[in-house]
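User: Please run a holo structure prediction.
Assistant: Happy to. Please share the sequence and the ligand.
User: Here you go; the ligand is nicotinamide-adenine-dinucleotide.
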Amino acid sequence: MKTKILSGREVSKFYKNKIRENILDLKKKGIIPGLAVVLVGDDPASKIYVNSKSRTCSKLGIFSKTLPYPNKITQVELITVIEKLNKDKQINGILVQMPLPLHIDEFEIINRILPEKDVDGFHPENLGKLVIGKESFVSCTPAGILAILKYYNISVEGKHVVIIGRSNIVGKPLLNLLYQKNDFGNATVTICHSKTKNLSKITSQADILIVAAGNPNMITVDMIKEGSVIIDVGINRIKDKSTKKGYRIVGDVDFEGVKNKVSAITPVPGGVGPMTITMLMQNTLEATLRTI
Ligand code: NAD
């Protein structure tokens, strides 16, 4: 069987070109989309993500500003920052880089972002709208997964989709997107997690298997159905002395082991990863268009 490699890089390029064109049109009308990224503390991974977001903004013509704060910022001070950004006319999207220090209640912070500027799709109003099938900002990784499936004409209708992982940023929004009665929905969805029994019995029934567990190579060839589609969300760093950095990035799926049994699969890196930032750009554009 010829396996299709679902390239997130290719899909990302396609979306970015469309976003860039839309932004050029807006600029002709004197409108420039703006994204504010709030970064608390000095976590190296968070800094890398934030830098990469601001680089992508500048490539696409989005105005962006990063607001760095020390780890000791209080919850009240951070809420003041959010409220100021809510009122800022130059800013269409607000993103607070997670995780936040333990003394800050993440839910309380997200709750203070205006839902119409919540380009991460984490605000309870946006999540609630998603559940009842109303238009809302959808969190970027699930939106990116849908964009990949659409780009490669992989319909989910009537299929059994199995998701591994029930996080608020991946598993739960995905579940709510895929079973909806709409143009790109109507799947039968099973969600699995760390307490699921007989995991392989469930995964081997999946027409489409989406894995977001953060567990390197946990999905092996014996756990999947012949001809299925595999979406690997996992990003795991594993030691590898043969590389310059001393590590390499792998997904949650044993790519080499499964690739000849499946009809399509996303690689790691280069699969879901590049889509997340692209969908953030798409949401920022969307947020801007909604203000016109
Ligand atoms: P999380 O830790 O919040 O959730 C992991 C989920 O997987 C949990 O619900 C847990 O119950 C489940 N799980 C863990 N081990 C399991 C097992 N052995 N069997 C069944 N279920 C198991 O993680 P998250 O934030 O959703 O991220 C998951 C993975 O996706 C991580 O590797 C993360 O780096 C990656 N991720 C990638 C992107 C991207 O842009 N590609 C975005 C977000 C997350």
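The chain has a mean pLDDT of 97.
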